[in-house]
Design a protein that fits this description.
Blueprint (H helix, E strand, L loop, with lengths): L1 E9 L7 H17 L4 E3 L17 H20 L7 E8 L13 E9 L2 E7 L20 E7 L2 E5 L3 H4 L4 H8 L3 E6 L7 H16 L2 E6 L1 E4 L2 E4 L3 E3 L5 E4 L6 E9 L7 E6 L5 E8 L21 H19 L5 E4 L4 H14 L4 E5 L7 H14 L2 E4 L3 H10 L4 H23 L2 E2 L5 H6 L20 H12 L18 H5 L19 H13 L4 H6 L4 H13 L1 H5 L30
Family: Belongs to the NAD synthetase family.
Catalytic activity: deamido-NAD(+) + L-glutamine + ATP + H2O = L-glutamate + AMP + diphosphate + NAD(+) + H(+)
Enzyme class: ligase
């Protein structure tokens, strides 16, 4: 047996910032060296960020990725780190002739081993995911090589993200070729309860490969996606050895006792058990097994419960969207209702209350308690607020244009949207919208009104979950959370307990237009998330008339959702990357 200290760099790269990501690679490698690591592993496509989408179809971008990889390998050596092997993801290209149906330039979701100032091994993702948020047949061609690098006497195999989620491929190749450790760089986005699925997968694949497995995952927000980290190390039996925190950058350093590599060096083909052949390349780096040393105690970070996970994901997604896009502050409308209260609190926790600006825009129909609840939230959180009554502005519109019913109600929402966008233009704030997933699903929002903005913190949060998250946040004080520091719960209790209303007409209630949210959210979960048809929904126990009405509301609101801002994805199927339906569409579900 041989000892090997590995360092998993659970990091937050920025898409397209090749120079910045390379700088971070050098910085984190220095950290790993100070910790005495023998191997450092970064995440999938770390140098380019992930996902880069259509950037990979530009030859200039791929060229820059390859050049950055070579340059950072030389820099590591120049800074005295050349003898520390580094595994990192980047974008490469395959040596393939152009053909119809192949992505332009044949890009590869690639991984490389850096050592001695050069790139000593290259590989690429074998299994390309093409489901949910993934569209990788559009962007990449399949890799068919797998390096096994002998590091300090231990054979270390490398696979990439989806190669772990699919049967066959690199895991089967490792089982046949033999290795002491399989390292897997990942960019695996968060959705609720995914950490349980991920751990079971890592445990199972380690047993199939017959070796220890180190899974390192990206952390951070990228447009709609949030990456939760949760890097994992297990032994060959699948037993958990170490686990990183969720939603935080972290260098997870772990000592392993692993078998000495005895396989023959060189290249050889292996049946990947998925209809393909993988070429295994085994090579040895300078430096034999290390002298015995005292291992560091393994770290297993505590797990967050489901509500804590979701809240952390929302905060991280909002923070990174704001900071990575260069905004200094945000602005949003604060009504006193629960949606705007939760969105404001998420923003305060994400970037600090001093950078959060809210506008109270009472209309002729706004209740005293709504204004009072909004003012109380402002006091508790210490955010910057201003009040702009809209009654006279609405009246000025109505003098020029005769509007009634829904058109008159929507005018109020559009006046509020106009004010927020105007203040955004004047002061450079990012406008946050405050609609939840239940409203977005049923079209219970106003285009160019409450849907106006640049980012939507609770876009993927059903209404019942909005209440649950608000209650959870109120129960977790300064010692439990980020930048918001208050001796009182941040959200007034009345905002949580009162009956929801858009307050666009006298005595309006959400239940005037929608069923109770606990009923609605169960139905939406099965129609939107699980893709059940109308007969299946009725068979599942939903009222037939309600099924027909809600399905109609969801289907005709598709055009609204296409115009809604992006927001953090937390559910298995969000409105955006996950769910893509035609706007012009005459298909209608029927209950029989």
């Amino acid at each position: 047996m041989a000892q090997l200290r590995i360092a998993l760099a659970q990091t937050n790269p920025v898409v397209g910032d090749l120079a910045g990501n390379a700088e971070r690679l050098v910085e984190w490698t220095h950290r790993a060296a100070r910790e005495g690591a023998h191997l450092v592993v970064f995440t999938e496509m770390f140098l380019t960020g992930y996902p880069v989408e259509d950037l990979v179809l530009r030859s200039s971008f791929v060229d820059a990725s390859i050049a950055t990889l070579d340059a950072v390998a030389r820099r590591l050596a120049d800074e005295g780190l050349g003898e520390l092997p580094v595994v990192t993801g980047y974008v490469d290209r395959a040596d393939l002739e152009p053909r119809l149906g192949q992505p332009k330039g044949a890009p590869l979701d690639a991984v490389a081993v850096l050592h001695g100032g050069r790139v000593v091994a290259r590989s690429a993702k074998h299994h390309l995911p093409n489901y949910g948020v993934f569209d990788e047949y559009r962007y990449f061609v399949r890799g068919d090589r797998m390096p096994i690098v002998r590091v300090r006497g231990v054979d270390v195999a490398i696979a990439v993200c989806e190669d772990l989620w699919q049967d066959g491929g690199p895991v089967s190749a490792v089982a046949q070729a033999g290795a002491g450790l399989l390292v897997v760089p990942n960019a695996s986005p968060y959705e609720v309860e995914k950490d349980d699925v991920r751990l079971e997968l890592v445990e199972r694949r380690a047993r199939e490969a017959g070796c220890a497995l180190a899974y390192v995952n990206q952390v951070g927000g990228q447009d709609e996606l949030v990456f939760d980290g949760d890097s994992i190390v297990v032994d060959a039996s699948g037993a958990l050895i170490a686990r990183a925190s969720q939603f935080k950058e972290e260098l997870l350093v772990t000592d392993l006792d692993l078998p000495l590599g005895t396989g023959e060096l060189g290249e050889f083909p292996v049946n990947a058990q998925d209809g393909t052949t993988i070429t295994v390349e085994r090579l040895e780096l300078a430096g034999g097994p290390v002298e015995p040393y005292t291992p560091v105690p393994p770290v297993v970070a505590p797990r967050l419960d489901d509500l804590a996970e979701i809240y952390h994901a929302l905060v991280l997604g909002v923070r990174d969207y704001i900071t990575k896009n260069g905004f200094r502050s945000v602005i949003l409308g604060l009504s006193g209702g629960i949606d705007s209260a939760l969105a404001t609190t998420i923003a305060s926790d994400a970037i600090g209350p001093e950078r959060v600006h809210v506008v109270l825009m009472p209309s002729r129909y706004s209740s005293e308690h709504s204004v009072g609840d909004a003012e109380e939230l402002v006091r508790r959180q210490g955010i910057t607020a201003r009040t702009v009554p809209i009654a006279d502005i609405v009246t000025a519109f109505e003098k020029e244009v005769d509007l009634h019913g829904l058109a008159a109600e929507n005018l109020q929402a559009r006046v509020r949207g106009m004010l927020l966008m105007s203040l955004s233009n004047e002061h450079g704030h990012l406008v946050l919208t405050t609609g939840n997933k239940s409203e977005l699903a049923t079209g219970y929002s106003t285009l160019y009104g409450d849907s106006a903005g640049g980012f939507a913190p609770i876009k993927d949060v059903p209404k019942t979950l909005v209440w649950a998250l608000s209650t959870w946040r109120n129960a977790h004080g300064p010692d439990d959370f980020f930048l918001l520091r208050t001796d009182e719960p941040p959200i007034p209790e009345n905002s949580i307990t009162k009956e929801p209303s858009a307050e666009l007409r006298p005595d309006q209630r959400d239940t005037d237009s929608l069923p109770p949210y606990d009923v609605l959210d169960r139905l939406l979960d099965e129609y939107v998330e699980k893709d059940l048809g109308a007969p299946e929904l009725v068979a599942a126990g939903h009222d037939s008339e309600l099924v027909s009405r809600i399905i109609r509301l969801v289907d005709i609101a598709e055009y609204k959702r296409r115009q809604y801002p992006p927001g953090p994805k937390i559910t298995p199927k969000n409105f955006g990357r996950d769910r893509r339906l035609p706007i012009t569409n005459r298909w209608r579900e029927t209950t029989h």
